[in-house]
Amino acid sequence: MNLKEKMQRRLKLSRPSLRARARPPKHRTTLGAQFTAANLSTALALQHCKSCGHTQYPPTELCGICLEDQLIYQPADGAGVILAKTELHHSLWEYFKRRLRQGSWPLCSVALNSGPEVIAHLGSDHLKAGDPARVFSHTDASQQAVLIAVDANVDVSYPEARREIVSAMNLDIPAIKEDGL
Amino acid sequence: MDRPSIYARSRKEAPANESRVRLIITACDCPANTHGEHVVRNYEGIALVCPVSLGYAKQSSHGAAWYVGSVLREIIHSAGIAKSDVDGLAVSSFSLGVDSAIALTQHFGLSPRWIEQANMGGVSGIVALRKAARAVQCGEAQIVACIGGDGAGHRSFEATAAHFSSWSIDASFPYGAGGPNAAFSLITRHYMEKYGAKREDFARIAVDQRYNANHYPKALLGHKRLSTQDYLQARPIAGPLHLFDCVMPCAGGEGFLIMSEARARTLKLPFVRLLAADELHNAHPKDSVQDRGGWTEYMSALYQRAGVGPEDIDLLQTYDDYPVISMMQIEDLGFCEKGDGPRFVQETDMRFDHSGAPSRKLPHNTCGGQLSCGQAGSAAGYLGLTETIRQLTHTAGSNQVPRARHGLVSGYGMVNYDRGLCSGAALLARGDA
């Protein structure tokens, strides 16, 4: 990299994002991409070990319990309990920075009844630690699957219902720079 | 000082300078500890010398190699040895990029016969120390330089956070991209709800550390005072975490030398002895939210091997990426019972000079810790060690703890997904203690 390229790069990094449409982090590992693919057609699909029956999340190549190479994606029950809840006021990512100008961004961790503990966007603001919750997956504005936790009483068995929740969170549309570039 | 009865063993009762101590590790739910009885050799004859802290910069045009190499240069100068005398090198860094510790040997013109790369964040220093001490003890190397160094390019922290681990890429970073703040806000909120801790309790840790930093010229935030009110009124970052709960990523370099006690005496270097040290990683995997670390499984044995107890500790350095983690360590290291951390910090003066109001004195993170010095990547995992070596050799200067003889350093780190996986602890003593 010569000096000119270096200075151009520095300028690009230094200035605030001029991107008109900011999106959530798109980058995933190969396993994360597989998770997205497996979750396209269903409310929630998680890796299931054919050898020992363990349900695995985050996605891995081998079962975390028996280390066998027998993991396949299967539809999973999203029922669980909220472990902890938080709300972000600061983010490293432009999409969330723009969203945060409208208010804090709620997150939670959920212990699924099937075993794994997941971090998820929180779709039902009133939930607190210890409350029953339901977790489902949906593609975000970067076309990657993310998990969303809602009240256990919310019916998420239909794609329309899931889409409605995600739309209400503005997760399926980019964050537009409203005052122009 | 209050202490649980499990550690009720004074220095006099302990086996003095026993070369091999048998200990029984009780079974627990940690796979690492189910092997029952084993024997740990002590670290007799090992000396820690020449602590170097380069200082910190919020942003730097220098890379990690500059920081690691500069620490090496300063260490060699202060030891009065030749570069070729260093025959072992342990390096920790997140920002070496395509380079490794091996590449650095060519950069620095070193020909070590022993090399180690320990990139384990907050426990790097203790991991490097333990390995280097064994190498010297076994004669595989004579002088090992243990160095942590990291640069801080513009917005480099964003890149580190976005690509920290495969699990964070797939399953935590896409959720709000809060970096470690998100994971630790969940841990902090859970701890507050479970044990009734308040922000005022965490303030005790941050405020006393800032007082210490005000007396340590190299601390990045040492020129600023911090009151409890400043702490409580800071802007929110994530859930219960506010500005002064979060460390500032920065560049920096820390390091020290490991050699035999005999060599240190020959070179006339003030030295610190390693009484005992241990590690345990991914401990308590079944805890749904982290509120304890691997220390709970080995601290009583560690105190036994060292022949000291929590009441003998003159200064404590915990890994303070967030105050709740320091509180967790204070509990797990045996200074109080689990859940008693909030009361303990309220009733303890953690200033280096014992000048605070509470009657119980325990100087804690005596240079300000990362909360006030900044978090220099993997170098931050060496911060507690370099500071403790300075304190115990009485070379700390303006933030010297009076009459310091025994120091405890603990390490924690590597949030792979939802919790820090590493734990480490080292008990150090003044050369003549």
Question: In short, what is this structure?
Answer:
The complex is a heterodimer of chains A (about 180) and B (about 425). Chain A has about 180 residues and is an alpha+beta fold.
Reconstruct the topology from this structure.
The complex is a heterodimer of chains A (181) and B (433).
Chain A: H1 3-14, E1 21-22, H2 30-38, E2 45-49, E3 55-56, E4 71-75, E5 79-88, H3 94-100, E6 105-112, E7 117-122, E8 132-139, E9 145-151, H4 159-168, E10 175-176
Chain B: E1 20-24, E2 37-41, E3 46-57, H1 64-79, E4 88-92, H2 101-108, E5 114-117, H3 124-137, E6 144-150, H4 156-162, H5 166-171, H6 180-195, H7 199-213, H8 228-232, E7 236-238, E8 241-242, E9 251-260, H9 261-266, E10 272-279, H10 295-306, E11 315-317, H11 323-332, H12 341-346, E12 348-349, E13 360-361, H13 369-373, H14 380-392, E14 406-415, E15 420-430
Parallel strand pairs in B: 4-5, 4-6, 11-14, 12-13
Antiparallel strand pairs in B: 1-2, 3-9, 3-10, 6-9, 7-8, 10-15, 14-15
Structure description:
The complex is a heterodimer of chains A (181) and B (433). By secondary structure, chain A is of the alpha+beta class. Chain A has four helices and ten strands. Chain A has one domain (21-175). Chain A has helices spanning 3-14, 30-38, 94-100, 159-168; strands spanning 21-22, 45-49, 55-56, 71-75, 79-88, 105-112, 117-122, 132-139, 145-151, 175-176. A five-stranded mixed beta barrel of chain A has the order 5-6-7-9-8. The longest helix of chain A has 12 residues, at 3-14. Chain B contains 14 helices and 15 strands. Helices cover 32% and strands 21% of the residues of chain B. In chain B, the strands form four sheets. Chain B has a nine-stranded mixed beta sheet with strand order 5-4-6-9-3-10-15-14-11, sandwiched between helices. A two-stranded antiparallel ribbon of chain B has the order 1-2. Chain B has a two-stranded antiparallel sheet with strand order 7-8. Chain B is an alpha/beta fold and 433 residues long. Chain B has helices at 64-79, 101-108, 124-137, 156-162, 166-171, 180-195, 199-213, 228-232, 261-266, 295-306, 323-332, 341-346, 369-373, 380-392; strands at 20-24, 37-41, 46-57, 88-92, 114-117, 144-150, 236-238, 241-242, 251-260, 272-279, 315-317, 348-349, 360-361, 406-415, 420-430. The two termini of chain B are 21 Å apart. Mean pLDDT of chain B is 92; it is low at 1-34. Chain B has a domain at 47-150: Thiolase/Chalcone synthase (Peroxisomal Thiolase, Chain A, domain 1, 3-Layer(aba) Sandwich), CATH 3.40.47.10. At the A-B interface, helix 1, helix 2, strand 5, strand 6 and strand 7 of A face helix 4, helix 5, helix 6 and strand 7 of B.
